[in-house]
């Protein structure tokens, strides 16, 4: 978040969201490499985390996720 309150004129930085998604993908990959079963990975977020979660799901192949 670059400024508050957030309004329709607030900056939108898609690059920041994509970087956050990449970090979450890396954390998931690390957990799976450490032995966590992919079906045991649960992604959840509220507010900005919800945006990250939604972007993550949209960028993950359907075969890699359970909906």
UniProtKB/TrEMBL annotation:
Chain segments annotated as transmembrane: none
Any one Pfam family match given in the protein's UniProt record, by short name: Abhydrolase_2
A single cellular component GO annotation: cytoplasm
Example GO molecular function: palmitoyl-(protein) hydrolase activity
Domain Phospholipase/carboxylesterase/thioesterase: 8-52
PANTHER family, per the entry: INACTIVE CARBOXYLESTERASE OS04G0669700-RELATED (PTHR10655:SF57), LYSOPHOSPHOLIPASE-RELATED (PTHR10655)
Family listed: Belongs to the AB hydrolase superfamily. AB hydrolase 2 family.
Protein name (database record): Phospholipase/carboxylesterase/thioesterase domain-containing protein
Source organism: Aegilops tauschii subsp. strangulata
